[in-house]
Design brief:
The complex is a heterodimer of chains A (202) and B (193). With 202 residues, chain A is mainly beta. Chain A folds into 2 domains: 13-70, 2,3-Dihydroxybiphenyl 1,2-Dioxygenase, domain 1; 81-197, no CATH class. Chain A contains 2 helices and 9 strands, in the order E-H-E-E-E-E-H-E-E-E-E. Chain A has a 5-stranded mixed sheet with strand order 5-9-8-6-7, covered by helices on one side. Chain A has a 4-stranded mixed sheet with strand order 1-4-3-2, with helices on one face. The longest helix of chain A has 11 residues, at 25-35. Chain B is α/β, with parallel strands linked by helices and 193 residues long. Chain B has 2 domains: 10-69, Roll (2,3-Dihydroxybiphenyl 1,2-Dioxygenase, domain 1); 71-166 and 179-193, Signal recognition particle alu RNA binding heterodimer, srp9/1 (2-Layer Sandwich), CATH 3.30.720. Chain B has a 4-stranded mixed sheet with strand order 1-4-3-2, covered by helices on one side. In chain B, strand 3 and strand 4 (60-66) form a beta hairpin. The chains are: A mainly beta (202), B alpha/beta (193). At the A-B interface, strand 1, helix 1, strand 2, strand 3 and strand 4 of A face strand 1, helix 1, strand 2, strand 3 and strand 4 of B. Strand 5 (108-114) of chain A pairs antiparallel with strand 1 (13-20) of chain B.
């Protein structure tokens, strides 16, 4: 963590809302209210015949889902990282084929919700019971001196080089985006920031 | 943070993961200007980076940087800030559409009485910021905000709710299916809040 203590600060109380464009408002409401169990707190008609609905995540945070009757065309790899399915052998989120471009610059790649670490197994089952394909728990590991992101199916032998920090379940939303239930497995420390930020063209 | 879900204890957004074209610019902006500490960095096998910034205890934003990345597509992969230049609205970006599956914009909650001060502070940092905008619908005024952009053109907002829940409830709302698109289409500019 760099020295930001003296820089201008804002009293940011959290993420107020995230506005997501959806393909079908009926499926969206069903997913948020029945699968995720969220209240729909406000809904409105838009001037182009579209709709917008707000689903409360916490008392401070909502998802604002917007549907347009006529929307620009887009595709996975440009507008989001598609949920690519559960690997039958490892139970993990299938890797994109080599060379597949992920989401475009300036887009949302995926969305992770904060959940209690000890609830992840139970939540995996609950999503599956609701008919949502959900991965096994992914143990994200920063591996070795280079702190490379690493998702082993078999843990390496040099246990001291392994640094697990977050556990994740992955599942799709009705539009095929990648959603995640995530929990840090330990507090993050100064040493977790080790890489020089890349520049465009690196 | 009180979870509103009856089925999962959702405490917030662990990370909204977005894509950067230049991670140094992203760090300078999110940590340097907005003050969100960079708390975790990862290398993606030499093909990219994944950095995490903390917003509050339960909320964060994260960025990927890929060697091989699709160029930004404002108006498709996100809202287009410049869409407002051809419309009479001051709500830059909010009159833009984006493709189904996209994040339109991202809003951070701030105290309502700080919006003017924060607008000035962002401007002092060289950021293009709107005036304070109040959005209302048939249920009355609901949100006051300022809008600005991150280095990749992602439309960001500082906002405060005046009235989150619709006073009349939502029972009369009938959500549209995708198949109704043709029948429902009207001439009008949708404002996405």
């Amino acid at each position: 963590m760099s020295d930001t203590e003296t820089k201008p600060r804002f009293e940011v109380r959290g993420i107020n809302h995230l506005a997501l464009v959806v393909a079908d408002m009926a499926k969206t409401r069903e997913f948020y209210t029945e699968v995720l169990g969220l209240p729909m707190v406000r809904a409105r008609e838009l001037a182009d015949g579209g709709q917008q609905a707000f689903f409360a995540i916490t008392d401070n945070t909502i998802i604002s889902a917007v549907w347009y009757p006529e929307a620009p065309e887009g595709e996975a790899g440009v507008i989001y990282r598609e949920f690519s399915g559960v690997d039958e052998v490892t139970g993990q989120h299938k890797s994109a084929a080599p060379g597949t471009k992920q989401s475009a610059a300036g887009s949302m790649h995926h969305l992770a919700f904060t959940v209690p670490l000890e609830k992840q197994e139970e939540y995996k089952e609950r999503l599956r019971e609701a008919g949502v394909p959900c991965t096994e728990i992914n143990h994200h590991i920063a591996y070795g001196n280079g702190k490379q992101a690493y998702h082993p199916t078999v843990l390496p032998n040099d246990a001291e080089a392994i640094d697990e920090f977050v556990n994740s379940l992955y599942f799709p939303d009705p539009d095929g985006r990648t959603f995640e239930f995530a929990a840090y497995t330990r507090p993050l420390v100064r040493d977790d920031v080790t890489h020089t930020p890349a520049r465009a063209g690196d | 943070m009180t979870s509103q879900s009856t089925r999962f204890e959702l405490r917030g957004f662990h990370h909204v993961a977005m894509v950067s074209s230049d991670m140094q610019n992203t760090v300078d902006f999110y940590e340097g200007v907005l003050g969100f500490p960079l708390v975790k960095t990862l290398d993606l096998g030499g093909q990219g980076q994944h950095f995490f910034f903390q917003v509050t205890e339960d909320d964060g934003v994260a960025f990927f940087w890929f060697k091989n990345v699709n160029a930004a597509m404002p108006g498709v992969a996100s809202a287009d800030w410049n869409a407002a230049e051809t419309t009479p609205s001051r709500a830059k970006g909010l009159v833009s559409k984006a493709a189904a599956g996209a994040m339109h914009h991202l809003s951070f909650g701030v105290p309502g009485d700080k919006l003017d001060e924060y607008r000035d502070r962002l401007r002092e940092a060289g950021i293009d910021v709107t005036e304070v905008i109040e959005q209302e619908d048939e249920d009355g005024e609901c949100i006051r905000s300022i809008f600005f952009r991150d280095p990749d053109g992602i439309v960001l907002e500082f906002s405060t709710w005046t009235e989150l829940a619709a006073p009349g409830g939502t029972d009369s709302f009938r959500p549209a299916a995708a198949s109704e698109a043709l029948a429902r289409r009207k001439e009008g500019i949708p404002v996405t809040i």
